[in-house]
Amino acid sequence: MIRATRVLRRDDLSGGEIVDRVVLDHGDRHRRRVAMRGLGGTGFLLDLPEATVLDDGDALVLEDGRLVWVEAAPERLLEIRAPSEHALRRLIWHIGNRHIPAEIGVDAVWIADDHVLAEMVRGLGGSAEAVERPFRPEGGAYAGGHAHGHGHAHDHDHAPGGHHHHAGA
């Protein structure tokens, strides 16, 4: 089976024959090694040196130089808005405090659809509407967006300005 051994970032794409495309949701775009099949039927082994977040518009480079386009799949998300810039910043703080992936726009934030977080946002004066669109969350300070520097991912609340500790941290 032909292998894809590197990623060409969308900003670096120049030339190259795009022979197929894969459409992946947010979770499936964080990969190192997995068998894949493009929508056009091209089968290949993604075989990267380390786990990598594939971004919408990137291309996977096959061993023979051909390219497979990466496209972000539409997902069910919450689009969060607030009545003011300050109120949106406050909502972003509360969302970030839960360590969940978030895509931050100029006047909205998108997170995975979650009824508990939707109620929290509404309780804090924001709006949370279900939408379907590609999800492109921030990579995070430690890359990948799945963990946040402690070597694991988790979901819990922290008091405003508070600290939390983990064994071995």
From TrEMBL:
Pfam families: UreE_C, UreE_N. It comes from the Bacteria. Keywords: Chaperone, Cytoplasm, Nickel. GO terms for biological process: protein folding; protein-containing complex assembly; urea metabolic process. It is found in: Cytoplasm. One of its GO terms (molecular function) is nickel cation binding. The keyword Chaperone applies. InterPro entries: UreE, UreE_C_dom, UreE_N, UreE_N_sf. Residues 135-169 are annotated as: Disordered. GO terms for cellular component: cytoplasm. Residues 3-68 form the UreE urease accessory N-terminal domain. Involved in urease metallocenter assembly. Binds nickel. Probably functions as a nickel donor during metallocenter assembly. HAMAP family: UreE (MF_00822). Belongs to the UreE family. This is Urease accessory protein UreE. It comes from Methylobacterium phyllostachyos.
